[in-house]
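Entry type: protein chain
Record version: 2
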Amino acid sequence: MRSFSHTIKKYLNMVGREATVIKANGGEDKFFAVVEQTWKRNKTNFTDRAMIPGRVYNEYCEILCPYDINLKQYGKNDTFLIEGEYYELCRAEQVVAFGEIQFYRGIIKKIREVDTNVFD
């Protein structure tokens, strides 16, 4: 059987969003990825909650990346920039079929700006 990793990468380049990973060490990686909000499937697990210091936003997305972008190499200090929104990586895994990595899948969480005066 043949590998589909190159075909998947081709379609990610066609339908995906441009993503930039700003690494903690100062480097950048750019690629195309498909990003889908997970709360569209199960809203009850991802609703915002009011807490004493402010609001907690649970906006998680699933990200699919090509085989040559190893999501597992990125850590909590690396920031994903996708269409003007910032995300942090929560989880990453490789999808293997026919003995080869076909693509990477991960869960990213939207980073919200922190209010400076939450007690006012």
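Comment: The chain has a mean pLDDT of 82.
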